[in-house]
Amino acid sequence: MALEDVRVLTVAELSNYLRIHRSTIYRLVRRGDLPGFRIGSDWRFNVEEIDKWRLGQTAPPPETGQ
Q: Can you give the pTM of this predicted structure?
């Protein structure tokens, strides 16, 4: 994959992509749960790594109501 093919998102763009609040992103990054890297004081996120991370997340089992 060529370097120009790598898609990198800012916190605001990732917030829209995942449909979660920016503060949630910062919390996940601080805990080391979300893959990202810093450029100066700004966080950046590789879309491929985020997609792998997202697929690795497990949803809680649905309640049966019984």
A: 0.78
